[in-house]
Amino acid sequence: MTTAHAGGTAGNLPHEPEKATLEGRNKVLAFWLFLGGESVLFGTLFATFLALRNQTNEGPSANDLFHLPLVAAATFLLLVSSLTSVFAIQAMHRGKVALLRNWLLVTVFLGLCFLVLEIYEFSVYVRHEEFGMTTSAFSSAFYTLVGFHGAHVAFGILWISVLIGQLARKGLTVVTAPKIYVSAMYWHFIDVVWVFIFTVVYLLGKVG
Question: Where in this chain does the record put each Heme-copper oxidase subunit III family profile domain (predicted)?
Answer without folding.
Answer: 29-206
